[in-house]
Amino acid sequence: MQEKSKFHLLSSKEHVRIPFEMTGKFQIANSKFQHIIRSMNADKNTPKWLDEGLQNIWLPYAQMQTAPTPLPVSHTSGTKIILDDGRELIDGISSWWSACHGYNHPHIISEMEKQLKIMPHVMFAGLAHKPAYHLANRLAKITPEGLNHVFFSDSGSVAVEVAMKMAAQYWHNKGDHKRNRFICFKNGYHGDTMGAMSLADPDDGMHKAFTKYMPKQYVMEIPTGEYSLAEFEELLEGISKTTAALIIEPLVQGAGGLKFYSADILAEIRRLCAKYEILFIADEIATGFMRTGSMFACDEAGITPDIMCVGKSLTGGAIGLAATIATDKVFDAFLSDNLENALMHGPTYMANPLACAAANASLDLFEREDYISKIEAIENQLREGLAPCKSLENVADVRVKGAIGVVQLKNADWGYMFELREKFITKGVWLRPFGDIIYIMPAFTIENEDLSKLTSTICKILK
Ligand SMILES: Cc1ncc(COP(=O)(O)O)c(C=O)c1O
């Protein structure tokens, strides 16, 4: 407990408190709002498969007693989601920030189709296939200098678990058995598996039920503003001998509220980790592949992490795949005559050839397309389009970074955010406000008019 009060530097007063629990990815309905949920569902002509399937489906982040019926989707195309009843929604959030080239990109589909016919899957232990080996070469080339060793997995959360195992075992293999904790950050989010959950902001509530099962970590604040780097360094030094690694979402904390911080601060945190021999893990699952404007957010800070996690946009949002990429320094600590020093991890579907084919196709597109200019244009358009929100009474902040636009509200509650979502749908846009923010993370291929419609709809509805 003592430790917790020292390193748990969170103040719940700083948050807009809301009478429910909700992040970018989850929502747990409070019974107070049941009427809203029911009204959303009223008069919906749901297709038979949805009605029947609902009896057997368990939805993500949903209180199944009160959760609204999800919108039935017929198909996707470009940056549009087409509903079963024919309505088209402009997708403002690219399926949890993954479909960066838009849906059904012809190049990705064609490469996946080719791979599907040859070999949709084969196990990765003892057998090798070109899509994964080629992808590993390519990832080593495009990630920050020195990240050379790619371990594939099937989701972002698992990539984070693998990073944690790499970091913990790195010290174990070196004979240091004291460094078994992780430093993570207030407003941080790294996934929903047990280890990844232990790295989340403990204030966020989503993981309360598991506190007793999860390892205790050091939770710190990103040293911006009043919170000085000197104070951060002092804390870091004090816990360095019991810390395996620090994990951070570079430049943008995603599901914890889309909070931005500077590349200078990121570079400084990286420098301090090197100084106190703490491994530095960059979780680029949300920021990677140009979301913040550079290929990886770490590039803007000019840093190489010891370990980097990627996922989401790795396949252009077509299929699940993630990777944990390590430097020689980390990799070499696993080399020995003893099997016990090896990384004991191997998901059944790791390096799935179909997913690797999609990822290779996605990388082709990053090579081919001029996304730098496209993202600059999106950034300018988001800035301009969301600017009118700044003067609105209930708006606390409007911020834009790369292809991310955020409007943060002063007062927000679950019911209101839910009503907003419903209003957006009636205007033909798919946005999922959460906590106290409304955000846009479009595909890089979005047309100007569609992006304008997203920004103007937010401004109009907030008026
Ligand atoms: C920064 C970050 N890390 C990890 C994850 C977990 O990824 P997945 O949902 O693929 O398990 C997410 C998902 O939103 C994320 O934003």
Key phrases:
alpha/beta; Aspartate Aminotransferase, domain 1; Aspartate Aminotransferase, domain 2; 4-stranded mixed β-sheet; 16 helices; 18 strands; 16% strand; disordered N terminus; binds pyridoxal-5'-phosphate
3D structure, described in words:
The protein is α/β, with parallel strands linked by helices and 463 residues long. It has two domains: 77-103 and 371-462, Aspartate Aminotransferase, domain 1; 119-368, 3-Layer(aba) Sandwich (Aspartate Aminotransferase, domain 2), CATH 3.40.640.10. It is 36% helix and 16% strand. The protein contains 16 helices and 18 strands. It has helices spanning 2-7, 34-41, 48-54, 94-97, 106-118, 130-142, 156-173, 194-198, 229-239, 263-275, 297-301, 328-332, 353-368, 371-386, 414-426, 448-462; strands spanning 21-22, 27-28, 73-77, 80-83, 88-91, 147-153, 181-185, 218-220, 243-248, 252-253, 259-260, 279-283, 307-310, 322-327, 395-401, 404-409, 429-430, 437-440. The strands form five sheets. The protein has a seven-stranded mixed beta sheet with strand order 6-14-13-12-9-7-8, sandwiched between helices. A hairpin with a 2-residue loop joins strand 15 (395-401) and strand 16. It is globular and about 60 Å long. The termini are far apart. The structure holds pyridoxal-5'-phosphate.
